[in-house]
């Protein structure tokens, strides 16, 4: 009986336990089955979107970690795809937003752009967290982009800086190797001597005549690096063989002194040769002069005269004077002036040369007349009133530019042209780029000489009075102010009437006499011109006359383009081989290189 009651109790307990367990399960299942067609599908899709977005976040994290481990590769790819060969600068980033802030950049096929949600109310809490995480990732990538670009610049700039110093490192190694080689006793033929000589030859072959790394190709750079490594090991051996630093210091000082002496000697020799070339007439110009002279004397006497001689002394016309023995240079001056003139029929050129070049000069302009302009050719030897003793004996110099009578003839303009009131003096090494008739309209204010000033400090043409005139002489210090402004010859407008009133030619003779007794000035016409026209010069606009094309003066291109006259002052004249190539085209455009005589005399562009 007791056993039965016990089993009954256990059965009842088990039934109650089963009911308590199964009833909630049945109720929950029926509830889900009723709402499966409405909200169940949405929750299921939401769960799938959450899973997908979590996968994207994991992929982005993997990409970001991958970028952190190897930043160099994508940045270098950006530089290679760009138009510039060098590293991307900050300016280029500002100009090109695609480099600094990518709009649709994708890495490894995953879109990293931000997408704003349409409706915040439709997002569940996990979706908001995922979106926030994605936005943070994108912001972090955008902030880190300039740092990556900067790191990419450093990646490229460090090898570039290293490449820029390869040639210098090679030169340093060669100097050290030669210094160690000098420590070896003469006549020694040890293995070390053979090795270091071989290394020196290999390095010299690898570098060649290169002075900067851009002169070397990639193959030469790699070869040089290999030879430098081999030289390093050899120099390490040498430092062990010769450990005394004091001996090395003495040897390097001696080598430095010898190199400086050789450099000074080479500079002096180069300067001498350049000046010698500037004073030498090219062979082609000699040939041209001889052919023209022969042609001139083959003409009948009546054909040897130039036309329109009645215009030579007409004061109402525009008169230009050129004193030269260079046929080609005079041709360029005349052609450039006439080609830019507004009224070429009113232009008269007066060319004065020596008796040797008079036939050639005349023949050239007879066969190549200057358009509607008039030209007169005269010989300095026909001026009987001219006292050559003042010109040839008072200034002693080896440079014919200073001792030539034609160079000092400018101080006799009123005597050469007694019927003229104004005249423009042009040097034979100028090119006219604009109409010059406006010079006659300048108000001279009672001055004799109109010229461009050269007293502006910092300019390439800057000159002071004491650079050419000896102010230690009491006479000079009393009459002249060392701070007075200087000016240039080459393109000057002269008022001949005022010149005659002030008798400045006599003043020129006076200073020339004083200079023969004591050193008052340097040779040439410029210092004595400053003294003669002191307080008689009118400053004109700098654009009328731009100097500095006959030497490395640093004259700016915009100044040349705006100039009325450009001047090849200096020894590097445009008709010489030593002339500056960048300035020669301005002169060459006014030379007729197709002329048969120029072709026969090998005068080419």
From TrEMBL:
UniProt-listed Enzyme Commission number(s): 2.4.1.-
Record carries keyword Ribosomal protein: no
Positions of the UniProt region annotated as Disordered: 88-132
Membrane topology type: Single-pass type II membrane protein
Source organism superkingdom: Eukaryota
GO BP annotation list: cell wall organization; pectin biosynthetic process
GO cellular component: Golgi membrane
GO MF entry, a single one: polygalacturonate 4-alpha-galacturonosyltransferase activity
Class of this enzyme: transferase
Localization terms from the record: Golgi apparatus membrane
Keywords: Cell wall biogenesis/degradation, Glycoprotein, Glycosyltransferase, Golgi apparatus, Membrane, Signal-anchor, Transferase, Transmembrane, Transmembrane helix
Matches recorded under InterPro entries: GAUT (IPR029993), Glyco_trans_8 (IPR002495), Nucleotide-diphossugar_trans (IPR029044)
Pathway of action: Glycan metabolism; pectin biosynthesis
Family listed: Belongs to the glycosyltransferase 8 family.
The protein's name in its UniProt record: Hexosyltransferase
Name of encoding gene: LOC104225686
């Amino acid at each position: 009986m007791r056993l039965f009651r016990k089993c009954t109790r256990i059965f009842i307990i088990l039934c109650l336990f089963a009911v308590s367990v199964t009833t909630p399960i049945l109720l929950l299942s029926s509830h889900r089955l009723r709402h499966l067609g409405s909200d169940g599908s949405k929750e299921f899709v939401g769960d799938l979107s959450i899973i997908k977005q979590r996968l994207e976040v994991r992929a982005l994290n993997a990409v970001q970690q991958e970028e952190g481990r190897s930043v160099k590769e994508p940045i270098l790819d950006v530089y290679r795809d760009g138009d510039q060969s060098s590293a991307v600068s900050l300016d280029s980033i500002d100009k090109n937003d695609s480099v600094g802030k990518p709009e649709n950049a994708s890495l490894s096929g995953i879109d990293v752009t931000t997408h704003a949600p349409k409706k915040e109310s439709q997002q569940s809490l996990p979706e908001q967290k995922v979106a926030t995480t994605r936005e943070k990732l994108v912001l972090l990538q955008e902030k880190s982009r300039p740092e990556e670009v900067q790191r990419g610049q450093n990646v490229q700039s460090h090898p570039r800086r290293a490449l820029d110093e390869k040639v210098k490192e090679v030169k340093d190694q060669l100097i050290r190797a030669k210094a160690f080689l000098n420590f070896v006793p003469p006549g020694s033929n040890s293995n070390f001597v053979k090795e270091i000589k071989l290394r020196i030859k290999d390095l010299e072959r690898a570098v060649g005549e290169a002075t900067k790394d851009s002169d070397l190709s990639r193959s030469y750079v790699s070869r040089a690096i290999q030879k430098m490594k081999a030289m390093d090991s050899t120099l390490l051996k040498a430092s062990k063989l010769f450990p005394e630093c004091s001996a090395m210091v003495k040897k390097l000082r001696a080598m430095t002194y010898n190199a400086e002496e050789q450099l000074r000697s080479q500079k002096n020799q180069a300067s001498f040769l350049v000046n010698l070339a500037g004073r030498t007439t090219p062979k082609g110009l000699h040939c041209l002069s001889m052919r023209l002279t022969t042609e001139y004397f083959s003409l009948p006497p009546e054909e040897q005269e130039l036309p329109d001689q009645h215009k030579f002394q007409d004061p109402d016309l525009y008169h230009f004077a050129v004193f030269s023995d260079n046929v080609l240079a005079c041709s360029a001056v005349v052609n450039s002036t006439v080609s830019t003139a507004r009224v070429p029929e009113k232009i008269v050129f007066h060319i004065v040369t020596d008796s040797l070049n008079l036939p050639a000069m005349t023949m050239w302009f007879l066969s190549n007349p200057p358009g509607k302009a008039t030209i007169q050719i005269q010989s300095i030897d026909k001026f009987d009133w001219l006292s050559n003793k003042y010109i040839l004996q008072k200034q002693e110099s080896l440079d014919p530019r200073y001792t030539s009578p034609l160079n000092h003839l400018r101080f006799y303009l009123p005597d050469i042209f007694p019927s003229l009131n104004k005249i423009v003096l042009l040097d034979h090494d100028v090119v006219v780029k604009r109409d010059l008739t406006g010079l006659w309209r300048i108000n001279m204010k009672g001055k004799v000489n109109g010229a461009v000033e050269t007293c502006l400090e910092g300019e390439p043409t800057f000159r002071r009075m004491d650079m050419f005139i000896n102010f230690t002489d009491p006479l000079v210090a009393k009459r002249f102010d060392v701070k007075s402004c200087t000016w240039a010859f080459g393109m000057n407008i002269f008022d001949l009437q005022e010149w005659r009133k002030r008798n400045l030619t006599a003043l020129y003779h006076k200073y020339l006499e004083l200079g023969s007794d004591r050193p008052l000035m340097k040779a040439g016409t410029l210092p004595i011109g400053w003294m003669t026209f002191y307080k008689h010069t009118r400053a004109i606009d700098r654009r009328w006359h731009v100097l500095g094309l006959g030497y490395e003066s640093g004259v700016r291109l915009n100044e040349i383009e705006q100039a009325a006259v450009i001047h090849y002052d200096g020894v590097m004249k445009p008709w010489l081989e030593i002339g500056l190539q960048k300035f020669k085209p301005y002169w060459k455009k006014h030379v007729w290189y197709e002329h048969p005589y120029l072709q026969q005399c090998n005068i080419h562009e």
